[in-house]
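Supplementary Methods. Inverse-folding protocol.

Structures were first reduced to a discrete structure-token string of length 699. This string, shown here, constituted the complete conditioning input.
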């Protein structure tokens, strides 16, 4: 008996239970415990069958990721699985919750698998920049067939119990894990079912041997979806070994590939992202006892692009929404767009055919703010001016029930000012979603000066319920994401004056791994919005203004920084824009110069990091990892680069500070001077991660 694995005997059945909260990950102790328990039960003449199951909320959720990068300890997972597979008595995995990664690999080493109906089974290693490292690439396709096998390994997406049953990954759906597993074990004994070792079972592989297109297709799809990632291709290749590499040799190669990837930069960055995401949901300075308020009814104000997307996110999670507009016309338009959006997703096979009707039925469109009266949470997503926001919040204060959480989806405005207009500033905060809100996973939770702890906790819990990734931030212009974006936009614009072209800047940014460059992004959002706001504020931006004066508002007019032909969204470089930039510079007497891609990259990324350092020093974000999460989930920062602050640590803060100082001098732009925190850490040879760790220990 070990501390984390216990064995009970129910006459001839040994029940081996892993009990290592929170997710029964395969730490060295768990591996050792299972190994010893299975070997002992295998040798015990009193035992005829073994059930492997877990206590707590889930079956084994994988290898212990915190052990990666540390010296490996025996027994290795492959040895544990071999001990199970070679056990002379039937071993049954009884699964509940999630059997993921190494957890599913353990189950695949068992001779039979049964699972509760809500169980999910998958090999998500690819999402951590890895391939399964303990036989998953070889045993899963033998269980479910090569086609589904390669899909599961390459995408990392789990399947539910019903699908697992259909494809032969499990034998039966059971009620409770321990009792169901035991009952199944008795059936195996009574029926004298032969033990099935997946390593020896090629029955599902033979049929597919002739046609290898499934692998080339899976690899091509992976490539398209995940530009720049190594692991999906390595996954596809590893699964293809089932055809012509002997099982033991394939396992050896699989392990070697796993070890290579686990030590690589991409997986390290992806593991950082995994933990940063979980850390970001933790709120600094909230008392232990703060519990979320009940959220059963939600009202969303505004059926425009943002309001509609937010309403869809709730409906997707099965939560009913009251969607409020000022007039029937606007409401009809908003609901129509949502309906079309759902139908397009269903037509692509993204959701079941009956989902659009079901989800739309959860969205109740009404006119008039008084309809917020029953809502536990109200999210305002109206036009982005302080005047209108204040008007809405004054009415919310009047109509919303006591204790309702009042959130604004503003992307820039001061939530303290919005809260101050109400008599209940403690109930007010920001929930800043990112466009398209039904797709983008980030939700910046903006904590205002008077926001109550339980209100913050409610917003974080609600964001998680609708499958968003929450990150708590403080009040400042643009919060974290847009404030850093503004630092980048400023440099992008300056680069055009100094000698670069939009397509050159955008190409550098997309080559780095972001989905879009600043100019293509501007065209998508619409250049006229910024133009109008500059006019209102009496500010000039000569090139952007000249584009708008020429009627080039971006994609909506098929011309902006690029041209768009035949209704396509693909940006095409436009010689007219080049001419316009050159003429504007000549008119202003600016001498243009050749700008290297290296300089562009530095001036796109380092000012963001610099702004990130200011944000940390001002405590607008609690941790550098929170900033990373915001960029990963709100702006498509490439996960294999871990986020801007993680990336900064890898490049070295000293180098970044030096280059920023150089660019500040070269361009005369004082905003490029290294921020005090960046400078301090650079001088001490420290990292943002080290600084955050020291701060957490001191707290
Ligand atoms: C692998 O298996 C490799 C093998 O093929 C080969 C090896 C040789 N390790 O997400 P939650 C922590 S690779 C360590 O908030 P939920 C997590 O950090 C692995 N810790 O809960 C958090 O800690 P804290 C393949 C882990 O209910 C706490 O558990 N497996 C691990 O929303 C709760 O997590 C995966 O990639 C772990 N494996 O979701 C599965 N997993 O409370 C990764 C979790 O201190 N895990 N923690 O912040 C998940 O997808 C989700 O955690 C899960 C539960 C769905 C299981």
């Amino acid at each position: 008996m070990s501390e984390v694995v216990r064995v009970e005997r129910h006459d001839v059945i040994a029940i081996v239970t892993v009990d290592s909260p929170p997710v029964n990950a395969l730490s060295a102790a768990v591996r050792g415990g299972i190994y010893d328990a299975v070997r002992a039960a295998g040798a015990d003449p009193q035992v005829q069958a073994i059930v492997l199951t877990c206590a707590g909320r889930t079956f084994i959720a994988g290898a212990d990721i915190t052990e990666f990068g540390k010296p490996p300890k025996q027994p290795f997972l492959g040895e544990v699985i071999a001990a199970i597979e070679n056990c002379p008595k039937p071993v049954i995995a009884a699964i509940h919750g999630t059997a993921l990664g190494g957890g599913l690999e353990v189950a695949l080493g068992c001779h039979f698998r049964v699972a509760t109906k809500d169980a999910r089974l998958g090999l998500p290693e690819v999402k951590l920049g890895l391939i399964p490292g303990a036989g998953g690439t070889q045993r899963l396709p033998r269980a479910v067939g090569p086609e589904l096998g390669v899909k599961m390994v390459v995408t990392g997406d789990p399947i539910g119990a019903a699908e697992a049953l259909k494809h032969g990954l499990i034998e039966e759906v059971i009620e409770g894990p321990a009792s169901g597993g035991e009952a199944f074990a008795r059936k195996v004994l009574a029926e004298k079912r032969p033990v099935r070792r997946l390593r020896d079972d090629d029955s599902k592989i033979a049929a597919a041997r002739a046609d290898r297109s499934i692998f080339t297709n899976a690899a091509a799809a992976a490539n398209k979806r995940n530009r720049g990632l190594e692991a999906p291709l390595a996954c596809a290749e590893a699964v293809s070994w089932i055809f012509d590499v002997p099982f033991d040799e394939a396992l050896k190669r699989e392990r070697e590939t796993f070890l290579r990837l686990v030590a690589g930069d991409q997986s390290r960055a992806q593991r950082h992202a995994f933990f940063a995401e979980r850390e970001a949901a933790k709120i600094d300075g909230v008392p232990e006892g703060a519990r979320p308020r009940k959220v059963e009814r939600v009202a969303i104000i505004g059926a425009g692009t943002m309001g509609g997307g937010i309403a869809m996110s709730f409906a997707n999670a099965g939560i009913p929404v009251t969607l409020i507009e000022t007039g029937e016309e606007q409401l009809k338009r908003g609901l129509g767009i949502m309906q079309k959006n759902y139908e397009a997703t269903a037509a692509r096979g993204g959701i079941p055919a009956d989902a659009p009707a079901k989800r739309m039925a959860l969205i109740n469109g009404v006119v008039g703010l008084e309809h917020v009266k029953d809502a536990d949470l109200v999210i305002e997503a109206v036009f982005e001016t302080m005047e209108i926001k204040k008007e809405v919040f004054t009415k919310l204060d009047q109509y919303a029930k006591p204790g309702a959480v009042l959130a604004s989806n503003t992307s820039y405005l001061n939530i303290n000012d919005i809260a101050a207009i109400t008599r209940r500033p403690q109930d007010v905060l920001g929930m800043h979603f990112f466009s398209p809100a039904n797709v983008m996973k980030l939700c910046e939770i903006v904590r205002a000066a008077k926001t109550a702890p339980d209100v913050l906790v409610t917003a974080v819990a609600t964001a998680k319920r609708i499958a968003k990734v929450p990150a708590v931030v403080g009040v400042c212009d643009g919060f974290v994401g847009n404030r850093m974006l503004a630092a980048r936009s400023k440099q992008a614009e300056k680069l055009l004056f100094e000698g670069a072209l939009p397509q050159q800047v955008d190409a550098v940014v997309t080559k780095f791994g972001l989905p879009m460059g600043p100019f293509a992004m501007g065209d998508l959002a619409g250049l006229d919005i910024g133009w109008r706001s500059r006019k209102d504020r009496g500010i000039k931006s000569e090139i952007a203004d000249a584009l708008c004066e020429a009627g080039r508002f971006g994609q909506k007019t098929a011309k902006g920084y690029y041209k768009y032909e035949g209704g396509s969204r693909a940006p095409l470089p436009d010689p007219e824009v080049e001419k316009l930039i050159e003429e504007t510079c000549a008119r202003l007497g600016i001498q243009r110069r050749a700008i290297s891609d290296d300089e562009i990259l530095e001036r796109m990324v380092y000012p963001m990091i610099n702004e990130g350092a200011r944000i940390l020093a001002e405590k607008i974000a609690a941790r550098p990892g929170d900033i990373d999460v915001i960029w990963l989930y709100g702006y498509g920062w490439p996960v294999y680069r871990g986020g801007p602050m993680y990336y900064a640590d890898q490049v070295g803060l000293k180098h970044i500070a030096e280059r920023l100082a150089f660019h500040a001098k070269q361009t005369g732009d004082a905003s490029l001077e290294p921020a005090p925190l960046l400078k301090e850490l650079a001088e001490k040879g420290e990292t943002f991660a080290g600084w955050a760790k020291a701060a957490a220990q001191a707290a």
